[in-house]
Amino acid sequence: MSRLAVVYHSATGTTEILAKAVAAGVHSVAGAEAAVLKIEGTDIDRGRYTNGEIMRQLDTCDGILFGSPTFMGSVSAQFKAFMDASSDRYSERAWAGKLAAGFTIGSSPSGDQLNCVQTLQVFASQHGMLWAGIDLPTGWDSYGRNRMGAQSGLIALQTDAGGVHRLDRLTAMYLGERVAGLATGPTS
Question: Which residue numbers delimit the Flavodoxin-like domain (predicted)?
Answer without folding.
Answer: 4-179
